[in-house]
Design brief:
With 568 residues, the protein is α+β, with helices and mostly antiparallel strands. The protein has 17 helices and 23 strands. It is 28% helix and 20% strand.
Length: 568
């Protein structure tokens, strides 16, 4: 989409919210004037509890065990009870949180973090450097998702004193600060008594965050209450309920009826945005976001492991129509090197889609020619047959999001024109991701998937997804069954390159190779829509934070601590 047209579209809808203009809330705000106002007539009337209700699309995959946290849903649920060392932002900066400051000693190749002396656990125990050391060493020992992204780069961790901890590096690591800083810290005095950490359900979470655990029911809700003794000062909201909606339409209805206050993420539900725009009590945010929407390919399966087949699919799919229709125009045309255009410092903006300047007839003709060249001839029913006699009948999976389903139906129609038959299979996110694609156990139970990834402002996210060290089933490369030593070696080298110019050159080369290989078939770059009601709370501060998988500003700890109930 052209820049001028994009601005016109968003401006006409009055949806643009410039997050950069909103102040970042300090971790520990001081009371105004340091004094609470006196009650009228000397009597304080009983106050009605303020309950913030947030909607989400799936249960946390980690349950209540932060060591298993691996995606944005996990951090949405756990990130108000547990806190990171630092708060990485989407603009690439890193703000203090549990750690009030840090420094890197190049001559010793060591990072040192200085903890806030006020930090404490919700049971009153102090939060110390021992907790930090324990958290990382436990994650490293068991290769847990939490903190594992730094495992290959840390030689040892030392406690200097109660509030100072150092990380001796095993070698250079360009993204250590945002990766390590984003790790949620666990209380040693609780978890060191747990025999099987990976199996522990953590029924009574003890964290350092502003809210306390009250109740959790899988596929239903999480109920939190504020910690009046929170080390940064209590929140202004009494309780939070994160309600799980497996049906996005039902979630939209709940927001319109006032049963919800926040839909932290409308991604994939762009077709529902007009319904919310029409409600005067609902505010819709549309942010340009580092997102990649793509067709994930199961590289284990023939003939999808042939680059020529991926090229034919890439050419046949009308990406312009998908953005305009499935995404309702809330997106940008794809860059094929994976890094999205809004990560301007690192993106290769010349790696545009080859079909961009072609007519529909030219694209379909070229796609058919590619398959003809492989000897995949059409049968009487119009479906191509591979050189080993198998019909090109594939399954394409997606989540229950309306925009994703619509995109799948369009892809199905496109591929029919080149002799590939698709069956669209729709699953809730929990079943699709944890049960099939990223389970590590059902790797052959899918062919294609309409999916999306949100990239950190640092390209290390690109590198660790496709060249993970060590690999887990939740990294894209092993989940998709993809290996390429040339590209993966380059990505691993980029993680260790401290010279920014050389690192930039490596990322540029990796993008070019990635685009040529068509590791995934990029469809476009979605914007990030979200919505909230304006009639119950004020003080909205949706700062775009980015610690590990937490990409949703409205549900962030920064925004939640800014909110105040509106007096009736």
């Amino acid at each position: 989409m052209e820049k001028k047209r994009l601005i016109t579209l968003l401006g006409s809808l009055c949806l643009v919210v410039v997050l950069a203009a909103l102040p970042f809330m300090a971790a520990c705000p001081a009371p105004e004037n340091g004094v609470e106002p006196p009650p009228e007539n000397g009597v304080t009337p009983p106050a009605e509890k303020s309950i913030l209700r947030m909607g989400w699309s799936e249960s946390p995959q980690a349950g209540m065990n932060p060591f298993l946290a691996r995606n944005e849903g996990d951090y949405m649920f756990l990130g108000l009870m547990y806190e990171p060392l630092c708060m990485p932002m989407m603009d690439g900066t890193v703000k203090p949180w549990i750690a009030k400051s840090w420094e890197y000693k190049a001559e010793e190749d060591t990072w040192i973090f200085h903890l806030d002396e006020r930090a404490k656990w919700s049971d009153g125990e102090p939060l110390t450097a021992d907790d930090v050391k324990f958290t990382f060493e436990t994650a490293y020992e068991y290769n847990f998702p939490l903190g594992s992204t730094t495992k290959a780069f840390v030689e040892s961790i030392q406690v200097i004193d109660d509030h100072t901890v150092s990380f001796k590096m095993a070698g250079p690591f360009a993204a250590f600060l945002p990766q390590a800083g984003a790790t949620l810290i666990m209380p040693k005095h609780i978890w060191s008594k747990v025999d099987a950490v990976d199996l522990y359900e953590n029924p009574s979470p003890i964290g350092s965050g502003p809210f306390l655990f009250k109740e959790f029911r899988a596929r239903a809700f999480l109920h939190l209450v504020k910690d009046v003794d929170y080390w940064c000062g209590p929140a202004n909201i009494d309780e939070i309920i994160i309600q799980i909606y497996l049906n996005p339409e039902a979630e939209v209805v709940a927001l319109k009826k006032g049963e919800l206050d926040i839909m932290a993420d409308l991604s994939g539900q762009e077709t529902l945005i007009p319904i919310l725009i029409a409600d005067p009590n609902v505010k819709v945010l549309i942010d340009r976001w580092p997102h990649i929407m793509y067709i994930a390919v199961n590289h284990r399966i023939y003939p999808l492991n042939l680059k020529e087949v991926r090229e034919a699919i890439d050419m046949a799919v009308d990406k312009k129509v998908i953005i305009e229709t499935a995404l309702m125009g809330y997106g940008e045309l794809p860059l094929m090197g994976y890094v999205p255009p809004c990560v301007a410092k690192w993106a290769d903006t010349e790696l545009t889609w080859r079909g961009l300047e072609m007519t529909d007839e030219e694209r379909i003709s070229e796609a058919n020619a590619i398959l003809d060249g492989l000897g995949f001839e059409r049968g009487k029913d119009g479906i191509r047959v591979t050189d080993i006699g198998e019909k090109m009948e594939l399954r394409i999976r997606c989540m229950t999001y309306p925009s994703y389903i619509r995109a799948c139906e369009m892809i199905k129609e496109n591929l029919e024109e080149i002799g590939i038959k698709l069956t669209v299979l729709v699953s809730d996110p929990e079943t699709l991701y944890a049960g099939i694609i990223y389970s590590g156990e059902r790797s052959y139970d899918w062919d294609l998937m309409v999916h999306g990834s949100t990239m950190n402002p640092d390209p290390d996210h690109f590198a660790r997804e496709y060249a993970p060290e060590p690999p887990t089933s939740w990294d894209n490369a092993p989940a998709f069954g993809w290996e390429n030593e040339e590209i993966q070696s380059l990505l691993r080298q980029s993680r260790r390159e401290m010279d920014e110019t050389k690192r930039w050159e490596m990322i540029q080369e990796a993008q070019q190779l990635f685009a040529d290989e068509l590791v995934v078939i990029t469809l476009g770059h979605r914007f990030h829509p979200a919505a909230y009601r304006i009639d119950r709370f004020t003080g909205w501060n949706p700062a775009a934070i980015n610690y590990v998988g937490m990409f949703h500003p409205l549900g962030s700890i920064v925004n939640i601590l800014s909110l105040r109930p509106i007096s009736k």
